[in-house]
User: Which sequence fits this backbone?
């Protein structure tokens, strides 16, 4: 999935407008114009489309964590320069305060069943013998299930 796909899906899941998306981004202390946010949210084939860099999506997700959980004391997290589905999954887990059983339920809603051990492998450090890469299919299913859980009628 592209960063733009993830951002569009999150906008739909959160059911917010471009102003709110920019406001979430601003919670990190970083600035983005509503116009830039609109370019990132446009479909790939639209003339005003702009590709969203990894670091910018990381900033947005850090803002989402602040929006949902509040600002933590001390230094704020530095946005990652490169994102993986594993990092995205971890940030969404934190933002929505999800436990393992919540995540398994969310995946099940989207007809994707995995074991608790498989799920925990996504949160291990790369290089750990049980680390597993979260592929696009599982990440898409997670976003689909999250939408179903947060807004079942939507």
Assistant:
């Amino acid at each position: 999935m592209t960063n733009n796909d993830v951002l569009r899906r999150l906008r739909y899941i959160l059911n917010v407008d471009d102003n709110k998306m920019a406001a979430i981004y601003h919670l990190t202390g970083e600035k983005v114009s509503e116009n830039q946010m609109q370019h990132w949210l446009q479909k790939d084939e639209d003339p005003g489309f702009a590709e969203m860099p990894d670091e910018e999506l990381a900033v947005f997700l850090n803002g989402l964590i602040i929006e949902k959980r509040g600002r933590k004391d001390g230094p704020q997290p530095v946005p990652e320069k490169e994102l993986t589905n594993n990092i995205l999954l971890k940030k969404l887990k934190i933002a929505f305060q999800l436990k393992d059983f919540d995540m398994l339920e969310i995946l099940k809603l989207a007809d994707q069943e995995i074991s608790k051990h498989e799920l925990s492998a996504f949160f291990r450090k790369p290089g750990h013998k049980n680390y597993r890469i979260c592929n696009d299919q599982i990440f898409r299913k997670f976003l689909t299930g999250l939408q179903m859980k947060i807004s079942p009628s939507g």
Q: What stands out?
A: The chain has a mean pLDDT of 94.
